[in-house]
Amino acid sequence: MMVNLGGVVPLSTIDWPGRLSAVVFLRGCPFRCPFCQNAELQSGWTPVEISELINHLFPRRGAGQSILHEFSGSVCIDSVVLSGGEPLAQSDAVVAIAREVDVRGLDLGIETNGYYPESLEVLISEEYLDMVFLDIKAAPREDMYQRATGIRDALPRVLRSLDVIVEHGIPFEIRITVFPGMPSEDELKEVSDLLWRLQPRSLESVVLQQGHPPRGEFEPVSEEDLIRLAQLLKFNIRIRSVRGSLP
């Protein structure tokens, strides 16, 4: 089976806080967000055999043992994060990769915009996923979500993905990328109210992350403004900026 690969980061401490992760970027995304941070992954075709990708992630060393296992828990990775683009746009490939990660005893996380709730539920039901990082683009109103994503009818799918996560009780993190005036304070409060109504016990944190203009057309929101916005919300909030994460 082929995967349309966007790239691999062999070691990251950012994508899954507290973990040492390899990050696999998959091409393709149904959204057309105006300030997409990975716009080059929305399209394009870089086919790679999944077996080749797995051999790259888990190179064999003697007696069939991988380098990753030898250093597990010390200086090498303990997990894999699937990112994009939107990884679940390639749902069959994601399941195949997840199966390979699972048999090697590593944890699997996924960064998703929530557009494919059925595919997300398959991964969770098969017990392949250990963590979901759900990107919320705007307040839970159709007009706001259409403005933020560039397409219609995304919101019901995202809300269904959130329901799937909460129903299954899988650990998850909400990520909200903040640009000047988008989302507004009122929109952030609406997101907070939505989560408050759901009372998700498995929600580990909400992250407000600093959005950056792809073409330098505006100044990013300051860390001070991110902290001020975080104080409006009702949850364990972390701030992520170009300088790193703040509690």
Descriptive account of the structure:
It is a single chain. This protein is of the alpha/beta class and 247 residues long. It has one domain (2-246): Aldolase class I (TIM Barrel), CATH 3.20.20. The protein is 32% helix and 26% strand. It has eight helices and twelve strands. It has helices at residues 50-57, 67-70, 91-103, 117-125, 142-149, 155-168, 185-198, 223-230; strands at residues 2-12, 21-26, 47-49, 60-61, 65-66, 79-84, 107-112, 131-135, 172-178, 203-210, 237-241, 244-246. The protein has a ten-stranded mixed beta sheet. Strands 4-5 form a two-stranded antiparallel ribbon. A hairpin with an 8-residue loop joins strand 1 (2-12) and strand 2. Helix 4 packs parallel to helix 6 (155-168). It starts with a strand and ends with a strand. 36% of the residues are buried. Residues 62-75 have low confidence and may be disordered.
Looking at the structure, the CATH topology is: TIM Barrel
Q: What is the H/E order?
A: EEEHEEHEHEHEHHEHEHEE
Number of domains: 1
Low-confidence runs of at least 5 consecutive residues: 62-75
Strand order of the largest sheet: 3-1-2-6-7-8-9-10-11-12
- How much helicity do the residues have? 25-40%
CATH architecture descriptor: Alpha-Beta Barrel
Structure classification: alpha/beta
Radius of gyration: 18 Å
Q: In one word, what is the shape?
A: globular
